[in-house]
């Protein structure tokens, strides 16, 4: 997986507790968009991913309506927090964490172009995040390294996303 100018993914150790996460990523490819009609500007990127990964990976497009129903059903305690986010980008960022926590698989932003199939990465990792380019990490964050949420993957119920979701709850309360 690569988007223009982005480097290798960040890898996390798999959980040693099989009750907390499944070792491998399920063959699901998730994306989020407001509605079912994908703008022309994103279609080439989407097609690059589908050409390399279908039928090995099922494609799931999550819309605003899907998000509300999914959170109300599977994460009702977080539904009000999610609805309370003022910006669509905040809801999109949060939604991807809930999706990966519950279903597992691979998430990619609409502007990500796939250069390689997901299979090798899915077979080798139980959880990964995209990495910001070194230059961007330096300029934007003043650090050598920054993880990104534009491309991520994990097995179902990976403990990493339990931590991320707990932090969402804390930061939404201003803690």
TrEMBL record:
Name of this protein = Glycosyl transferase
SUPFAM superfamilies from the UniProt entry = Nucleotide-diphospho-sugar transferases
One of the record's GO molecular function terms: mannosyltransferase activity
The alphabetized list of GO BP terms reads: mannosyl-inositol phosphorylceramide biosynthetic process
Q: Which organism is it from?
A: Macrostomum lignano
Q: Where is the composition biased (Basic and acidic residues)?
A: 11-22
Q: Polar residues bias: where?
A: 1-10
Region annotation (Disordered) maps to 1-22
């Amino acid at each position: 997986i690569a988007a223009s100018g982005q480097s290798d993914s960040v890898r996390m150790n798999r959980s040693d507790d099989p009750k907390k996460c499944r070792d491998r990523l399920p063959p699901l490819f998730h994306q989020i968009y407001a509605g079912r009609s994908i703008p022309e500007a994103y279609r080439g990127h989407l097609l690059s991913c589908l050409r390399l990964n279908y039928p090995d990976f099922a494609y799931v497009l999550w819309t605003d309506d899907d998000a509300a129903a999914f959170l109300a059903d599977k994460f009702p305690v977080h539904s009000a927090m999610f609805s309370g986010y003022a910006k669509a980008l905040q809801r999109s960022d949060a939604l991807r964490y809930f999706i990966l926590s519950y279903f597992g698989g691979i998430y990619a932003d609409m502007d990500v172009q796939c250069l390689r199939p997901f299979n090798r990465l899915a077979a080798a990792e139980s959880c990964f995040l995209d990495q910001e380019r070194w230059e961007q990490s330096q300029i934007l964050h003043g650090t050598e390294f920054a993880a990104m949420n534009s491309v991520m993957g994990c097995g179902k119920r990976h403990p990493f996303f339990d931590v991320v979701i707990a932090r969402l709850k804390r930061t939404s309360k201003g803690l």
